[in-house]
Amino acid sequence: MKRINVVARYKENLDWVEKLDGDVIVYNKGEDWSWDYNKVDIPNYGREAETFVRAIVDLMSSGKIREYDEIVLLQGNPLEHCPNLFETLKQHTYKYIPLCKWMTTQYTPKKDYVFDTHKHFVDLFFNETNKNMKMPEIPENTPVNLFFSCENGEVVDFGNESKDTMYLCSIIGIPYKNKVTSWANGAQYLLHRNLITSKDLNWWKELHHLMLYVSKDLETDRIAYSIERIWPEIWNHKTISTTLKGFI
What we know:
Strand content: 15-25%
Radius of gyration: 18 Å
Shape: globular
Strand order of the largest sheet: 3-2-1-4-10-5
Largest sheet: 6 strands, mixed
Number of strands: 10
Distance between the termini: 36 Å
Order of helices and strands: EEEHEHEEHEEHEEHHH
Helix content: 25-40%
């Protein structure tokens, strides 16, 4: 299978890239550069999620997507989330393989709000990546607000993150209510081309337009975190309409 590796870089060292099999293209959001790889300089908006969607649009617009069987989506320092990266990339797939070691499972309730919800919903958000958070003592069947204080004093609102995710799913047209989903922390994947081309180019363009609007015009990266949580749903999603719901 022929493969292309898409690397979303900011300021990371890319010496590890030489170990990758297949073609490489780096989407660079930093100013320093000292490597001889195919590079596209882009503005620093939307974190790696914007980079990946941009790369998909570029591959589809140019027709180069048809030259590859597999696409690998990587961050500038992929080993942070995937210490077994190169071993994992020895695999091939006709679907998708999360490259990151840690997976999070989340449950989306039937209702359109997530505050004052059940302890079980809170538990599903906690895994090894949340060790710096203070897990509150919540008796079973006790409604809670999804606010948590970190050791560094930051207050994290998982309620808003969940609502953002559900709203984004409604725009994209992905069923989300009363559903258990899993996503990989770090948002790095090995996937087959068909999971990209099952959505048409206009759909990907509109998604990218939406991401730039939120990250650039509204000056928030919240949509990037929401995309991270629904990548598997996007890979499995097949569209008929070329227009995202509620956003043009």
